[in-house]
Amino acid sequence: MLRYLDYPPIWLLAALGLVWGETVLVPQSLVGAGGQMMGNALILLAILLILAAVAGFVQARSTIIPHQMPRQLITGGIFRLSRNPIYLADLLLLVGFSLRWGAVSGLALVPLLAWVLHVRFILGEEARLRAAFGAAADAYFARTRRWL
């Protein structure tokens, strides 16, 4: 059953569900209007990152599904800045919604989600890229940071 649910958006939704559940059970307003505005800005930035990354996948005609073998090594566009812009966007969404909802303790989930994404997805994706593209993948990894 877990393999059908083992996708990054599911992990993000689980983290967001915990944060939202906390705000329902223990309403918080520790961040104020400035924090909510910062949360909104991070959510917008995350959406833009996701759209830019999806455009890169579509243009390269490669798969966006984490467990599949890639058809192309995407190194242009947003992928020049980050090897994992969608995972970075997932973290920004978690921070953004935590701030927007005033759930500062939700920020504690950010390193946990980063670890899950790294262990469950990034390491496997990098191995598949190395297997498929060899030295080109290694060169890309050497010049482009994993997150930022």
Keywords:
148 residues; 5 helices
The total count of helices amounts to: 5
Distance between the termini: 33 Å
Total number of domains:
1
- Largest sheet report: none
Compute the CA-based radius of gyration.
16 Å
Low-confidence stretches: none
Query: Structural class of the secondary elements?
Result: mainly alpha
Number of E-state strands: 0
Shape: elongated
Average per-residue pLDDT, rounded, comes to 92
Helix fraction? 55-70%
Instruction: List the secondary-structure elements in sequence, H or E.
Output: HHHHH
Residue share in β-strands: under 5%
What is the gist of this entry?
By secondary structure, the chain is an all-alpha fold. 69% of the residues lie in helices and 0% in strands. The radius of gyration is 16 Å and the shape is elongated.
Walk me through what this model shows:
The structure is a single chain. By secondary structure, this protein is mostly helical. The protein has one domain (30-143). The protein is 69% helix and 0% strand. The chain has 5 helices and no strands. The mean pLDDT is 92.
